[in-house]
Write a structure and sequence with these properties.
GO cellular component, one term: cytosol
CATH topology of the largest domain: 434 Repressor (Amino-terminal Domain)
Distance between the termini: 43 Å
InterPro entries: Cro/C1-type_HTH, Lambda_DNA-bd_dom_sf, TransReg_Diox_bact_type
Radius of gyration: 17 Å
Helix content: 55-70%
CATH superfamily of the largest domain: lambda repressor-like DNA-binding domains
Protein name: XRE family transcriptional regulator
Organism: Celeribacter indicus
Structural class: mainly alpha
Number of strands: 0
Oligomer: single chain
Shape: globular
Largest sheet: none
Order of helices and strands: HHHHHHH
CATH architecture of the largest domain: Orthogonal Bundle
GO molecular function, one term: DNA-binding transcription factor activity
CATH class of the largest domain: Mainly Alpha
Number of domains: 2
Amino acid sequence: MKHPVDVHVGKRIRHRRWMVGMTQQQLAEKVGIKFQQIQKYETGMNRVSASRLWDIAEALSVPVAFFFEGMDVPAADMPQATSAERAVPSDILADKEALELVRSYYAIPENQRRRLFELARVLSDVA
């Protein structure tokens, strides 16, 4: 039986790998394992050890905490979301269009990217 935390971490591995344009084989080679193991991690079939998660985080250039972002936390421990935050799906990285948008955004030169970001903030009325 899959544990929800393992499934969540696996999804975050898959999303980050996809965002950086890396195949399962490429990630497996960087981490020193077989690509089938990456498949099992990404589906939550196998639990990722702490040291292996550290290696995956390094290979994907993110902090280990990245894989736990968006985990369900008891309501009493959660800060109240703003209306703008409630408008965004909780698992935005599950949306392929959103992932493509993020990849395209980071492909834009930094100075143009900042201007695009400011434009998006103005258009969305988010301060």
